[in-house]
Amino acid sequence: MSETLLLLLIPALPLASAIILLATRLNRLAVSCLALSSIGLAALAVLIIQLNTASDFSPIQESWGTWLEVDSVTLNFAFYLDGLSLMMISIICGVGWLIHLFSVAFMAQDTGYQRYFGYLNLFVAAMLILVLADNLLLLYLGWEGVGLCSYLLIGFWHSKRANNMAANKAFIMTRIGDTAMLIGLLLLFWQFGSLDINHINQQALDLPPNSSLVNVSCLLLFIGAAGKSAQFPLQNWLPDAMAGPTPVSALIHAATMVTAGIYLIARNATLFGSALEVLNIIAIVGTITLLLGASAAMVQSDLKRILAYSTISQLGYMFLALGVGANAAASFHLMTHAFFKALLFLAAGALIYCLSHQHNIYKMGGLAKKMPWVSTAFIIGCAALSALPLLSGFFSKELILSHVIDQGHPWLWYGAVLGGFLTAFYSARLILLVFFGPIQQAPDRALPKTMAIVMASLILLSIFGGMLPESITRQFPASTPPLSLITHYLPIASPFLAIALAYWCWQRGVFTRSITSPIQKTLHTLLLNGWQFDQLYHLLFVRPYFIITQLNRHDIIDGLFRGIEVTMIMLHRLCSKSQTGSLRLYNATIIVFIVISLAWLIIGGTTA
């Protein structure tokens, strides 16, 4: 089978499966087989492409017809596969299939089983279209597709108002970024006369640095990326997005949705390379976000919210890398993060499943003996997240830090090292509270074998994911910049110091002790609420808008529409009086009408 046909099948299979699942009614076995086989065959197609191109890889570009043609501008439905997009589809299909398999057990008793897998397959298909698109308009189609699917899956259990509000929040906040991105696409089209990604990047090589229009366009694209990837100041939708089923959270955080912003900038690296001021903004925003997310994660009590803030922080590392021009390092960390974050979320899903949907870490405790396999998965996932040596997260995060200091950004480097310290601290706090100490709640269900198998696969990827074959990691650099002793050893020592501090705090009951100091209470509340961004936005935007609508509820336009309504009601009442139900009256009315009509015709003919 040719590589071009395989390339088409990769998104077509999950898309076709999604259409069947959402348009028909099947039994659970058929749903499971269809959903798993479609993603599995797509993953197999990716593997075949990797094997066929392992020795001699060159980008593949294929078009399947014209999508849009306006005057001299033609946009094709075309895909482009290079090292970056090959890595992305490997993650989406591989990790996505594992999440699908985990979902079979996790959602087994749910009444919306078929609808769930229909949305999940559509989610994967949209993300695949996004990363394979050879033009920005097709990429935007996939971009909006993942936005729609995230809305449907975050609010999947829609009988609860809180879930609907979380879905609305995610949809609206990402729309802010999407609007900015669309304007940026229009500006790029105006300047380059095309939305072909390779054409734009090629033309960008001839542009003078910091061209005003390019700077504005790249800034708008970055706002879109920041919305999708939950970066400051559009980061506060992601913790609430945990309202959906836990496997959905794993898919959003590891293989779809939030990785889209990283991919957008990495795909257009040459264009962003000519907007140096925007790159500085990206690096600064990434550093701020990684510190915001890590600090907020330190005090959370909800298991999934801790992991959500962790994702915000780790995405900040990727944006920091993009901002200093280390695009390969950002992509590398995206890949390793997909492995250990999928492991953490699915291990969290296993805990939640076995503990009757308990989310509060203070009501767990002592589960290392009760659930040894899950505790092993969690510990390895947190170790990789904390960038402990020789695990996958260590290689990618060290690569980012080395490039940051090599590019002459010492303050950003210190911020990233501090973020790593906080990451290890909240990871150790999570492990200690959930798996050690007194038992608060015993599991009431056994861990299904499929969940254990999925976690075993992700454990291996989390451990060895930083040493994958060159066929997957071909776009990553072969060596790191030379470092001084401090810049080399401090990031390595930092997580160990954080773990020691967390253990000291846990031994002295600091994590469970009541807070009495007003200053500490204020700080704890601030961090618990994610630095109060929800409250700030409510004060700045929601409340003023609500006041304006209340003041404007009797405006002229409303009065006009009410006048039309009143007029129609009066006419209705007037005409309804003629409907008496009397046949004699109806006949007499018809006769009178005929006589008047004949008289009118006769008089009109005589006059003529």
Helix content: over 70%
Percent of sequence in beta strands:
under 5%
Regions with pLDDT < 50 over 5+ consecutive residues? none
What value does the average pLDDT take?
A: 91
Total discrete domains: 2
Distance between the termini: 84 Å
SS field, number of helical segments: 25
SS elements, strand count: 2
Q: Give the SSE order as H and E letters.
A: HHEEHHHHHHHHHHHHHHHHHHHHHHH
SSE diagram, text form:
Blueprint: H1 3-23, H2 28-52, E1 60-70, E2 73-81, H3 83-106, H4 113-132, H5 136-154, H6 161-192, H7 197-204, H8 212-228, H9 246-254, H10 260-267, H11 269-273, H12 276-297, H13 303-323, H14 327-354, H15 367-370, H16 372-385, H17 392-406, H18 410-435, H19 449-464, H20 470-473, H21 485-507, H22 518-528, H23 533-551, H24 556-576, H25 583-607
Antiparallel strand pairs: 1-2
Helix pairs in contact: 1-2, 1-4, 2-3, 2-4, 3-4, 3-9, 3-14, 3-19, 4-5, 5-6, 6-8, 8-10, 8-12, 9-14, 10-14, 12-13, 12-18, 13-14, 13-17, 13-18, 14-16, 14-17, 14-19, 16-18, 16-19, 17-21, 18-21
Explain what this protein looks like in three dimensions.
The protein has 608 residues and is mainly alpha-helical. The chain has two domains: 511 residues, no CATH class; 54 residues, no CATH class. The chain is built from 25 helices and two strands. Strands 1-2 form a two-stranded antiparallel sheet. Helix 2 runs parallel beside helix 4 and helix 6 runs antiparallel to helix 8. The longest helix is centred in the first third of the chain and has 32 residues. The protein is globular.
